[in-house]
Design brief:
single chain; alpha+beta; NADH Oxidase; 4 strands; 43% helix; binds flavin mononucleotide
Length: 243
């Protein structure tokens, strides 16, 4: 399949067969992840592959009991990781200040995300399915304890990878005109949002799994109705980040 065709037919997979990924395949997924660009080549991420059934069970509970963590062919947690760099600075008895701010954190988040998406695209090119799991951030302190995360690290999301048992319909994206800006930013209009809502209302009503009477802006209103995961700031502080 042409790569563009693969990308535009992506949908998250939330049901996997029992088949686990072979060691070679898991190694190749890691190679793919590592091949992405990295700001100033800091490589500020780590990928924790979780295979211990008890840990998978605990992570699944943390992510609201969804079934597609334990059942995935492999499960990874992507960590924004400045601990490696802290060790270099400490070795040279240098201040860690430059690792602790928003800029360093942003770099690590971007690096980790590029690695995850590169792994995802490669996995999908092999016919595997993927699903990102932000639910691991429901309790950052617990996940950090479970994975023994040191200072200057932050667990961003999980990634389930496996052989699809069921594939969802492709979700219609915002029209390109709503995300593409030429030369300067132009805010979206309520009319544009209403047009997209019509498309999404029809998608949500007709989709095969979990059909519902909603649209995109209603979902966004619900999602951003009040601040979520308010323990994040305290966790970042605990990890050594000073914002
Ligand atoms: C960082 C991130 C976290 C996500 N967390 C979850 C999650 O916890 N559970 C889940 O079912 N899907 C999760 N998703 C998948 C999104 O819901 C999905 O990508 C989005 O609805 C678009 O659907 P599609 O991927 O099928 O096109 C996450 C996606 C991203 C990028």
């Amino acid at each position: 399949m042409d790569l563009l065709q693969q990308l535009i037919t992506h949908s998250s997979v939330r049901s996997f067969t029992a088949e686990k990924l072979s060691p070679t395949l898991r190694q190749n997924l890691l190679k793919a992840a590592q091949s992405g660009s990295s700001s100033n080549f800091v490589q500020a991420y780590s990928i924790i592959e979780v295979s211990d059934p008890q840990k998978l069970e605990a992570i699944e509970r943390l992510a609201n009991g969804i079934g597609y963590i334990k059942e995935a062919g492999a499960f990874y947690i992507f960590v924004a990781d400045l601990n490696k760099h802290a060790q270099i600075l400490q070795y040279h008895q240098h201040s860690l200040e430059a690792l602790e701010n928003e800029e360093a954190f942003t770099v690590a988040v971007v690096d980790a995300t590029i690695a995850a998406q590169t792994m995802s695209v490669y996995a999908e090119s092999l016919g595997l399915g993927i699903c990102y799991i932000g639910g691991i951030r429901n309790d950052l302190f617990q996940i950090a304890e479970l994975l023994k995360l040191p200072k200057y690290t932050f667990p961003l999301f999980g990634l389930s990878v496996g052989y699809p048992d069921h594939e969802n319909e492709v979700k219609p994206r915002l029209p390109i005109a709503d995300i593409h800006h030429m030369d300067s930013y132009h805010p979206i209009t309520i009319e544009q949002i209403t047009e997209y809502d019509k498309v999404m209302k029809s998608y949500y009503a007709k989709r095969s799994s979990n059909p519902s009477e909603t649209d995109w802006s209603t979902n966004m209103l619900t999602h951003f109705y009040e601040p979520r995961r308010s323990h994040t700031k305290a966790f970042l502080k605990e990890q050594g980040f000073v914002f």
